[in-house]
């Protein structure tokens, strides 16, 4: 069985909640690693990566992801599949909705990883986002502030897609 790391910044209870929902959907193959405790070999040792972050302030990554960015930029991930999930508030931050997810996507793409799990923007109301790739999100987008009732369905459908 392929080893899958689910790496996320735990400085948000909401991100932790979504990470646990993803782990529940995917089962025992997924090992949760807090980004606060992650090292370069954690990213390179697993067959597949699921990474997640909320967007803070005006489109920034949470502290631990932000501090790890220089190290992330040195990874060799050619051929590795990476799925990304991001949290944001489309009503309060429509001009940088889930930008943190887009920042992570940029870094992993630069490292040679193959991004998987793109999703539709249908049902979201925002002005712009760094997480867009064409007319799709570069991963799973969750807005617990405005669309909490859609979270379980979105997680379930996304997990089915990324394990294909």
TrEMBL record:
Originating species: Bacteroides nordii CL02T12C05
- Main role? Low-potential electron donor to a number of redox enzymes.
Q: Which Pfam families match?
A: Flavodoxin_1 (PF00258)
Name the keywords, alphabetized: Electron transport, Flavoprotein, FMN, Transport
Note whether Transport occurs among the keywords: yes
Q: What is the lineage of its organism?
A: Bacteria, Pseudomonadati, Bacteroidota, Bacteroidia, Bacteroidales
- Name recorded for this polypeptide: Flavodoxin
Q: Tell me the cofactors it needs.
A: FMN
Identify the PANTHER family for this entry.
FLAVODOXIN 1, FLAVODOXIN 2
Assigned protein family: Belongs to the flavodoxin family.
Q: List residues of the Flavodoxin-like domain.
A: 4-163
Q: Which GO terms describe its molecular function?
A: electron transfer activity; FMN binding
């Amino acid at each position: 069985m392929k080893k899958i790391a689910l790496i996320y910044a735990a400085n948000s209870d909401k991100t932790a909640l979504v990470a646990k929902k993803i782990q529940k959907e995917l089962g025992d193959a997924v090992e949760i690693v807090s980004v606060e405790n992650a090292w370069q070999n954690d990213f390179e040792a697993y067959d597949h990566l699921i990474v997640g972050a909320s967007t803070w302030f005006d489109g920034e990554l949470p502290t631990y992801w932000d501090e790890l960015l220089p190290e992330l930029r040195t990874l060799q991930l050619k051929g590795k599949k990476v799925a990304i999930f991001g949290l944001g508030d489309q009503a309060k931050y429509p001009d940088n909705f889930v930008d943190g997810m887009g920042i992570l996507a940029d870094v992993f793409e630069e490292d040679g990883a193959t991004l998987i799990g793109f999703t539709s923007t249908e049902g979201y109301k925002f002005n712009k986002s760094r997480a867009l790739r064409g007319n799709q999100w570069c991963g799973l987008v969750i807005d617990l502030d405005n669309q909490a009732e859609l979270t379980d369905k979105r997680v379930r459908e996304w997990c089915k897609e990324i394990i294909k």
